[in-house]
Amino acid sequence: SQLKVHQGFLASFKVTAAQILTVVQNLHAQYPHYHLDVVGQSLGGVHATMLATHLGEGRQAGTLLASSTRITLTHYGRPRVGNLAFVHHFRSLNLINRRVTSRNDLVSRIPFRHLGFVHENDEYWLDTHGK
Description:
One of its GO terms (biological process) is lipid metabolic process. InterPro entries: AB_hydrolase_fold, Fungal_lipase-type, Sec_MonoDiacylglyc_Lipase. It holds the Pfam family Lipase_3. This is Alpha/Beta hydrolase protein. The protein is α/β, with parallel strands linked by helices. The chain has a single domain (7-126), classed as Alpha/Beta hydrolase fold, catalytic domain (Rossmann fold, 3-Layer(aba) Sandwich), CATH 3.40.50.1820. The protein has helices at 7-30, 43-61, 84-92, and strands at 36-41, 71-76, 96-102, 124-126. Strands 1-2-3-4 form a four-stranded parallel sheet, covered by helices on one side. Helix 1 packs across helix 2 (43-61). The radius of gyration is 15 Å and the shape is globular. The N and C termini lie far apart (38 Å).
């Protein structure tokens, strides 16, 4: 099937994407051997996922980052971003991905699976005591 992401999430990411990518490119030019850690919570986790995806694509194409640059994505309480085709694409980028959720957080359960949205990996659960 065709790769799809939530259109509202994509639109909100596009508002700041160019500025963020410029900063990342400038920092990467200054520190080419550093690795990248991309972190976000809730909607920020969505943006972090989209940024890491874009950076991973650029790394594969050799246009944004050196091929040796490790990209680690950590997101907390993030909604589902895209469909299964997005998940396959995301996994093909060889990113380190850490998804942390609270058992009581409903945000990580939307948009709903019956609409075609899925998470791209296993998760680390936090209980009510933060463990």
